[in-house]
Structure formats: C-alpha cells, structure tokens
Amino acid sequence: MEGWQPSALQLERQAYRRRRTQRSWLIALVSSAVVITLVVTVVRGSTGWPRTRDSFFDFGLGWDGVPDLLRALWINVQIMLITEALVLFLAAGIAILRTLRGPVFFPLRFLAGLYVDVFRGLPLLVVLYLVGYGLPALRLQGMPTSTFVLAIIALTLTYTAYVAEVFRAGIESVHPSQSGSARALGLSYAQSMRYVVFPQAVRRVLPPLLNDFVSLQKDTSLASVLGVIEMVLTAENQASQSGKFVHYVMAGLIFLILTVPLTRFTDWLARRQGWVNAGGVIT
Amino acid sequence: MSEVLRVSGLRKSYGHNVVLDGLDLTAGEHECIALIGASGSGKSTLLRCIDLLEVVDDGVVELDGRDITDPRVDGDEVRTHIGIVFQAFNLFPHLRVIDNITLAPRKVHGVPKEKAEVEALALLERVGLREKASARPDELSGGQQQRVAIARALANKPRLMLFDEVTSALDPELVGEVLMLIRELKHDGMTMLLATHEMGFARDVADKVCFLDGGRVLEDGPPEQVLGDPREPRTRQFLRRIIDAGRL
Questions:
Q1: A166 to chain B, minimum CA–CA distance in Å?
Q2: Which among A122, A198, A266, B226 counts the fewest CB atoms within 10 Å?
Q3: How many domains does chain A fold into?
Q4: What is the pLDDT of residues B9-48, one digit of tens each?
Q5: DSSP-derived secondary structure letter, B227
Q6: Is the pLDDT of residue A281 over 50?
Q7: Binary contact (A283, B88; C-beta < 8 A)
Q8: Which residue in A178, A180, A188 is closest to B53 by CB distance?
C-alpha cells in the first residue's frame, strides 16, 4: 500500500497491544523467579539433598566418564541408522501388502496382518530375549551370533510393525478420488500406488514416522540386555565401579542432546503447513 | 457418422438403490451429448461405468464397436482411450502441473520425458496456462485447476471425453473459462459426453440433450426440442425447477 499511514485509531490499538505484551513478559518473569526460588529453597533445605547431590550430581566425576560414554554411543548410532534403513524399506513393503485387494493376495495380506498384530503387541524386551537368546540356541547354520546383529534384528522386527501401521494409515488417508483419477488416466494399480498414493502418504505421515524414530533412538539402549556394550551398559559399568548414579545422568543427558533436536525438528516439520499440505488438500 | 460409443441395457445398483435401470445411449463421431437430470438421476454413475471405474451389473458398453464391459478386457488399457474430468478436479497435489500432465504418457505409454514435456507444454498452451507449468495445483484457482485437469485427460489423446459436472465446484466468474475450453474441444471435433447443470451451455454446445430419469434416458433430442419444448411431463417439471432457480 503506497502512501498508507496508520490511522490514529490503529496507532492507539498498536500502543495498547505493545503495553499488553510488555505486561505479559513482566508477569512471566516475576512468576518464574518466584517458582524457581521456591523450588531451590525447598530442595536444598530438604534433609536428603546432600546425599542426592553427592550421588546424582557429582558432575566432576561424571565428566571423567563422558569420553567412554561417547565412544560407546557410536554403537547406539550404528544400531539406530542400520535399523532405520531396514525398517523404512520393510515397513513400506508390509503396508503395501496390506492394502492389496484380490483373492490372489489373501495369504500375503493375512501374513502381513498377523505379523503386525503380533509384533506390535509383544514387548520389545520379549522380542530381544527371543531373538537374542533364542535364535543362537537353535544352532542353525548361518544364524548370526553377534549380539550387535541380533539386537538389530529384534529392533527391526518390532519397529517395522509400528512403522508399517503408520504407512498404512497414510495410504488409507489419501482420498480414493486420487487413485480413482490415476486409474482413469490408465495407470495400473501398482503405478497409481507408486506415483500417486504412496508419495502423498509419506508426506503426510512424516511427523508420526519421525516420532517412531525418536523412540527407536532411545530403545537402542535396550541392546544392553543382550550384552552389547553400548552407552547405557557402559554407564552401568562406571556406576558399579564408583557407586554413584551420576553416570546414568550423563548418559541420559547425552540421549537428550540426541533426541530433543529430532523431536523439535518433527514439530517444526508438522507445522510447516505448505509441505504437509502437499499431500493433504483433498479436493 | 460412425459410432464411437454405444451403451445398451446398462444396469447399475448400489445395494437396493438402482441407479441405472437398462439405460441406452449412443454417441457418434464428433458428437457432443449433454446429460441432464436431477441429482441422483445417474449422470455421474453412467460416466463412471463408461470409464470402467464401476463394475456394471448388466448391459453392454461398446467403444468403437468393442464390448469394453467384458471382464476379459484390460480396463487399464481401455481407460487410456477415454478421458474423464471430475467435478472436484482431482489433480495430484504433490506433483507440479506439468508432471500431472506427463504422468500417464510417461508411465503408461512410455513416452520419453522430453517428448512428453513438449507435448504437455503444447496442451498447456492450448488451455492458456503455459506459464503455470511449474506451479503446484494448490497455487491455482479452481478454474485453472480444472483446465489443467482437462489438459491432463487430453494428454492420452482420448477417443472420447467425459465431463462430470466440471463447473459445479467453481465460482461463477470462473465457469466461463472452462466452458470456453470445452466449446473449443467440440469445435475441434472431440466426441464427448457431458453431465451438466449448465442448461444454457448445453443448449449452446450440445448436438443432443438426454434427460435422465429413473435410471433411463427418458427423453432425448436436439437441445431446442428437449430444453425448449419437452414432450415428457417429468422433463417439463425438471426444467421448470431449473428456471425457477434462475439457471436457464
């Protein structure tokens, strides 16, 4: 708008909004100060505080263990990246199997459904025990015995079931008129899935998908129950030597440094309407 | 005039709701047929049955003399000879305008990317949207989206075009640009069936108007006769309601 000057009325409104904002900031500041003071006073005044501080917050001791923790973290990261790649690939396949129509595909559809139901319902810990201890006990030829590999297999089995359901929800959320008009153009079922439905589904489920990957990031620590020397098991060893819990706190903080950015990224992605809507406007 | 489409004894029901009840219809080469009738009279269902998007209960649809309702016929192949445009456009929101148009030629007919894009740009030129080739569907107005949808259907070089109330979802000032395009297609000799509520347009562009009622073609003939001096009381009643609504 060229030559537009806000009217006196509008200027007065803006001044009012500014005053309100300043006031809100002031209130937030004062209330935060009060709450923090209260919490600090109560915690430090309580009888257990010196022992708690000694056991949980001896950061000098904790810091000494960090290099070992970070070295062990590399194992978690490897487990995470390999599992994610496997899960993405397998889950997309399972999800598409479950949407196939026609009697020929009944057995595949049924098996895919059974798999998802079972592995979504089983606690990850049970799967880890079954795969990690059960499979090697069979002494089958070619069966991997590395606990690292077995942990990846167990995590992949469980997370593929979750992610397959995420993909399936996405596929089913794409309006039937989309595959309808793809078929009307002469595309086959497989082509309309490949070029029209699946790309839209993936865009839509990206936030819940990343959500599952945040979970996976944390659950890599469960590989420790099979004896994989990853970060949490390393912290456990440090803790049993020093008798302090600060090592767990450090391991926890390192996980937070990893997961919080990913969760924030997920939120940001979900809010970025233009992108999400690229698969979301039903016309 | 050779026959492009012949529909005989077509029947389609959803549960107990019989939508098409032994419907007969023919379309000659270069002919433009307007389908009119109340909501639920089966106009859309007829078009969807012709495009094999619905499985018919009984009856025959012939395209250039070939029975396409035969279950042994490859529906995907048949659909490439028939273009359909929907009321709700149904563009693919994740693809650019030009990719919407080239998808079927490239993936179904195996046309190389460069050639498909040259042809798509020519089609966009024809619908007056060449400069929108790289736009996303949601950046276009409703009228523009519908013109892209028409270009997309034309990319298969269809024998027959089906228009399913293509202006019903448009703002009044955008209806004209789409109707203009359909008029040009008619002028170029495209054989087409159009389900429409635009009686003025039907009178203007159609060679024949069919009034659908009770799952059949109750009355058909030249537009002046069906719209101006209908024989059947039901047709008269329908047209009176349209006139009362100010649509004719």
A1: 19
A2: A122
A3: 2
A4: 999 999 899 999 999 999 999 999 999 999 889 999 999 9
A5: I
A6: no
A7: yes
A8: A180
| CB A223 within 8 Å of CB A129 | no
Range of the domain at A222: 61-165+207-271
Strand partners, B67: B62
Token pair belonging to A150: 């077995």
* CB contact (8 A) between residue A178 and residue B92: yes
Domain range summary for chain B, segments of one domain joined by +: 92-157
Closest-CA residue in chain A for B49?
A184
- A177/B86 CB distance under 8 A: yes
Q: How far is residue A167's CA from residue A200's CA, in Å, rounded to a whole number?
A: 11
Query: For position A60, what pLDDT does the model report?
Result: 85
B103 and A180: CB-CB below 8 Å?
no
**How far is the alpha carbon of B68 from chain A, nearest alpha carbon, in Å?**
14
Indicate if A216 and A150 belong to the same structural domain: yes
Chain segment A183-220, per-residue pLDDT in tens: 999 999 989 999 999 999 988 888 889 889 999 999 99
Distances in Å between the Cα of B35 and the Cα atoms of B50, B162, B172, B196 are: 13, 11, 21, 6
CB B207 within 8 A of CB B31: yes
Position of tokens 């026959």?
B3
Do residues A105 and A21 share a domain? no
Tokens of A267: 């939120």
Q: Which residue, B158, B191, B28, is CA-closest to B83?
A: B158
State the CATH number of the domain containing residue A150: 1.10.3720.10
Distances (CA, A) of B87 to A64, B166, B196, B218: 68, 4, 10, 24
Which of B8, B153, B3 has the alpha carbon at shortest distance from B69? B8
Please give the structure tokens belonging to residue B224.
């002046």
* Partner A contacted by B163 (CB < 8 A): no
ipTM over 0.90? The verdict is no
Q: Which residues contact A245 (CB under 8 A, 6 or more apart)?
A: A55, A56, A239
Q: Confirm if A231 and A73 have CB atoms less than 8 A apart.
A: yes
